[in-house]
Write a structure and sequence with these properties.
The complex is a heterotrimer of chains A (268), B (278) and C (365). By secondary structure, chain A is mainly α. Chain A has two domains: 42 residues, no CATH class; 215 residues, Orthogonal Bundle (MetI-like fold). Chain A contains 13 helices and no strands. In chain B, 79% of the residues lie in helices and 0% in strands. Chain C is 25% helix and 35% strand. In chain C, helix 3 packs across helix 4. Chain C is elongated, with a radius of gyration of 25 Å. The chains are: A mainly alpha (268), B mainly alpha (278), C alpha+beta (365). Chains in contact: A-B, B-C. The interface between B and C is medium-sized, with 20 and 30 residues.
């Protein structure tokens, strides 16, 4: 890397990290408002936020929703991926494109379409409806990871298992699944983060009692501008970091670094 | 090859995912089309679309949406390419650090990142706080295209960088070295070898960033004012404030079709570019 | 079509990558028009030296002179050195003609001139009819020809070939080796070939520089390298040989012999050039060993041993017979001819192995 590129990277690093760093600084502010520089530091905003059910309930809702939608999406995606990768049925290419297609849609359009649809079948503003919405959002991400990991695993390990006397089920449970488990785990963590961060669908489909954290932060921010938002944001970042460390530990961050169409949902 | 009897389960394995998406993805989209065609009398027609396209205000909002997304895409490409280049050229811990730099923002919620930029740009934020400390006049940078633009570039940069980096990583370094030994100066080697070979990543990145930014509404909602209206925010308002479902559905369809058409145009231009270079 | 060919001089070139000394002060002199191979195992520094010559790596120390001109500080794009890269490094987004024209375009030649030179270069490698193809539409051998045409189209004063045949299958490799060699001598262009394939180096080069661990072990013509290796490394690296490690001992009559580690009861004859004492390595090339059925005694003018025939191994053009003597195994080879095969002793039969004293090599171990 030459000098100019190094200087540019330094500037870019500041640009990329500055807003997040400031959120952390503001969360520790002792002021009543977002003021820079903060007059002093305190943990009072964390204390306030941790006692505030209008943040804590959505936080639990988000965690629950993320876990449930990931598990449900995995139950749909893993069998589909197995068939698509190893058996290549006629039309596999088209089916794969179809299953990944929700990624191509602006998530707000998907959100309003889901709102109309779920309302028309009586699931508007229900928890089930919200869960269905997030499974639709999360499924393509999970499927993509599982497809990639499963394609990369050597089919000969299954063939070796057959020659050693394993039937297809045993070969899958004993050989294939352990081989792809780290990838599945990383994909699941990633899917959880997508759901945990999703705004558009959650904004359209949730109600006051099952509201998710991003929606509640958004709602708060529309009407208020104080360090409480910073504090809850830091708590949210901390959860993301913990999940990331888990992914890194089990599989390496490399699995998340080069999404072809990543993050549609997280962006809203 | 699997034993034959096991193939019978192919359908059973695929069905849940396929049926699930048919019902809860294609179903809603079709219903959205139907809703957008509803007319006040109870019949169906193009009234909502005519209303949107016939009003100069809505057309202006539509154009603003496209221009905003195009500008964000352009600046992400401009700022993202050198970063991607640095990732592709670095090794070991430096590479790890650069990837960390670019991936971390990706995993922080867009609401939080927008808030972060409000702290940077706001009246009592970092920049104005610094200006005040030196007794300089403060500038209000929130509530306008500048704040929206800078935040969206921040939000979109990782997508662009990762797309381009994966293309650059795929270019054999020997190609550049071959160009150098053939008499190409580094700038010429970039222009004739690296740039054309990275076009795939550039196309992927611009498509991705364009379609993500044209659909973004959180940032504009939080940072915009009444002049900075874009289509997604309008869809949201029609739904939540006016409860005008058919109109919201029609605007959503306009957004969707715009994304698809412009993506198609970008793809075609990309193909032409690649052929032209070849 | 090359300009007046230039000689290349490397003087004490050194390069270090972190903890590894890739080149430890290498000096090498290549005459104008000469075909020189850099041969050695992977990691010996041959590719590093080639890249220093091309200007893709800056050496830490030393000097490289091309046609009397010092190359230090000269950028690769100003060196006029043609390089054929491993895997060819053809530009995938350009067709064959555009690939070959690239270097000429960079030299801002007129389109008509470029066209003529591209045609000439493609004709030299017999690829004229492929001008409009893209690299992905060519076979490995064709890609190699294009890479060669691209390198010589700029009429370089020096041609560098970096493992150019590694990606070709064995038959094609042999044909391309002869073809490239023929082209090189026709153009009279000074050429440096980097390879780990000794057959390739021997087939193509005037002289070979054997490299190991960042140093040059020996520079010599192929025959001399094979028959008169300068040291143990070269003797071991080039060709195949029986290798016996042991101590020099004096027999009762005062003559010297080798006591192999593998069987201390044995005594093997050593040439008179061997050291008077200490540990040595005795090497005898298998084709230098004459295989005589039965315990017939060593012919006059030769030295040898009695052994028991063991396995025979057929490797196409020759056959190897492995023999046991005590705890030691020796083998000799013969051309694969039916009558020779028929005359070979059966497994378990006694056999006499004999060789000329001058064919045995002894190195300190």
């Amino acid at each position: 890397m030459n000098r100019w590129l190094k200087a540019y990277i330094a500037l870019a690093a500041v640009f990329l990290l500055l807003p997040m760093a400031l959120v952390v600084v503001v969360s520790l502010s002792s002021a009543q408002f977002v003021i820079f520089p903060p007059p002093g530091f305190s943990l009072k905003w964390f204390a306030r936020v941790l006692q505030d059910t209008s943040f804590m309930r959505p936080l639990w809702n988000s965690i629950q929703l993320g876990l449930l939608s990931t598990i449900m999406a995995a139950m749909l995606a893993v069998p589909a991926a197995i068939v698509l990768v190893r058996r290549r049925p006629p039309g596999a290419e088209a089916i794969q494109t179809f299953l990944l297609s929700p990624l191509a849609l602006p998530s707000l359009v998907l959100a309003i379409a889901l709102l109309f649809f779920l309302s028309s079948i009586g699931l508007g503003n229900t928890y089930i409806g919200l869960l269905i919405g997030h499974v639709v959002i999360v499924l393509p991400y999970l499927l993509r990871t599982v497809l990639a990991v499963y394609s990369a695993s050597d089919p000969r390990i299954e063939e070796a298992a057959y020659t050693l006397g394993a039937n297809p089920w045993r070969a899958f449970w004993r050989v294939t699944l352990p081989a792809i488990r780290p990838g599945l785990f990383a994909g699941g963590m990633f899917a959880f983060l997508i759901s945990f961060d999703e705004v558009a669908v959650a904004l359209m489909l949730s109600n006051a009692s099952n509201m998710t954290l991003p929606v509640s932060i958004l709602g708060y921010l529309v009407n208020n501008y104080d360090p409480a938002v910073a504090a809850i944001s830091v708590i949210k970042m901390a959860i993301v970091v913990v999940v990331l460390i888990a992914v890194e530990k089990f599989y390496g961050l490399g699995s998340l670094t080069l999404p072809q169409r990543g993050g549609t949902a997280s962006h809203g | 090859m699997m034993p034959n009897r096991f193939r019978l389960s192919t359908l059973a394995f695929l069905a849940p995912a396929v049926i699930g998406l048919l019902v809860f993805f294609i179903g809603p989209l079709l219903l959205n089309v139907e809703v957008s065609l509803r007319e006040q009398g109870g019949g169906h027609g193009l009234a909502q679309y005519l209303r949107a396209l016939g009003d100069a205000y809505y057309v202006k909002v539509w154009l603003q949406t496209i221009v905003l997304a195009a500008c964000v895409t352009f600046f992400t490409l401009l700022f993202g390419y050198p970063f991607a280049f640095a990732i592709a050229r670095s090794r070991g811990p430096v590479k790890g650090f650069l990837i960390f730099l670019i991936v971390t923002p990706l995993l922080i919620n867009v609401v939080v990142r927008t808030f972060g930029w409000m702290v940077v740009l706001g009246r009592s934020g970092l920049i104005n706080g610094t200006l005040r400390a030196f007794d300089l006049p403060t500038i209000n940078m929130l509530g306008g295209w500048f704040a929206i633009g800078i935040t969206l570039v921040h939000v979109m940069l990782p997508f662009m960088v990762l797309s381009i980096a994966s293309a650059l990583e795929g270019i054999d370094q020997a190609l550049e070295q071959a160009a150098l030994t053939l008499g190409a100066k580094p700038a010429a080697a970039f222009r004739y070898i690296i740039w054309p070979l990275s076009l795939d990543g550039v196309i992927t990145g611009t498509l991705l960033v364009f379609s993500l930014s044209i659909g973004s509404f959180v940032t504009v909602m939080l940072m915009g004012n009444n002049r900075t209206m874009v289509l997604p925010v309008m869809v949201y308002q029609q739904l939540n404030l006016s409860s005008d479902w058919p109109f919201a559905a029609a605007l959503g369809m306009v957004l969707l079709v715009t994304v698809l058409v412009i993506s198609g145009i970008q793809l075609a231009i990309g193909r032409r570019l690649r052929r032209g270079q070849a | 079509m090359a300009e007046a060919a230039s000689g290349l001089e490397a003087i004490q070139v050194s390069k270090r990558f972190g903890a590894t000394q890739a080149l430890g002060g290498v000096s090498l002199s290549i005459q104008a028009g000469e075909f020189m191979a850099l041969l050695g195992p992977s990691g010996c520094g041959k590719t590093t030296l080639l890249r220093c010559i091309a200007g893709l790596i800056d050496p830490d120390g030393g000097d490289i002179r091309l046609g009397g001109r010092a190359l230090k500080g000269v950028q690769p794009w100003h060196r006029d050195i043609g390089v054929v890269f491993q895997n060819y490094a053809l530009f995938p987004h350009m067709n064959v003609a555009e690939n070959v024209a690239f270097g000429l375009k960079m030299r801002r030649m007129k389109p008509a001139e470029i066209k003529a030179k591209v045609e000439r270069a493609l004709a030299l490698v017999r690829m004229e009819s492929f001008a409009a193809r893209f690299p992905s539409q060519l076979s490995g051998g064709q890609q190699q020809r294009v890479a060669l045409a691209r390198a010589i189209a700029i009429e370089p004063v020096l041609l560098l070939l970096d493992e150019p045949m590694a990606a070709l299958d064995a038959k094609l490799r042999g044909a391309m080796q002869l073809e490239v060699r023929e082209l090189q001598s026709r153009l009279g262009i000074t050429t440096v070939l980097v390879t780990h394939d000794q057959d390739e180096a021997m087939t193509m080069s005037d002289r070979i520089a054997i490299m190991s661990e960042g140093r040059i072990e020996q520079v010599a013509a192929p025959a001399e390298l094979y028959l008169k290796p300068a040291n143990r490394f070269v003797a071991d690296f080039i060709g195949r040989s029986n290798q016996i490690v042991g101590n020099i001992v004096a027999a009762a009559d005062g003559s010297l012999a080798l006591q192999p580690d593998a069987d201390a009861a044995l005594r093997l004859p050593v040439p008179s050039t061997a050291p008077r004492q200490g540990r040595v390595l005795l090497m005898v090339r298998p084709e230098a060993i004459e295989i005589l059925p039965g315990a017939v005694g060593v012919p006059a003018g030769m030295v040898g041993v009695q052994a028991i025939a063991a396995d025979r191994i057929m490797t196409g053009d020759r056959i190897s017979l492995y023999c046991q003597l005590g705890g030691l195994s020796l083998y000799g080879t013969l051309p694969s001819q039916a009558e020779k095969l028929a005359a070979l002793p059966e497994k378990g039969a006694p056999v006499t192995l004999a060789w000329r004293e001058s064919d045995a090599m002894v190195f300190a171990a």
